[in-house]
């Protein structure tokens, strides 16, 4: 399991769930599709780097213990600003794709993009324990 994908999809779900209630019109096709894959190819994991974690399992264990991403970053000398920027950039790319494909209107895109920073920041600071 790639914890980075879990966090991104979770943040996207939060963003989308607000979409139907705070921006007026419900969004069609609002559920994100997560592609889970297991490969033996080593790839750079930006989230692990920002958190200064050595593996997905280490991050998973910390999250399972109820720590927030902020807690993990502080404990390991990671960079919380990089974590927030990483997630905001990835969610912005997803919004760009949804706008380009016609799944959301320009007005919905602008409203959702305006709240991404705040939603992601709250998510990163929240413990789930």
Automatic annotation (TrEMBL):
Domain of life the protein comes from: Bacteria
Protein name in UniProt: Uncharacterized protein
Source organism of this protein record: Paenibacillus helianthi
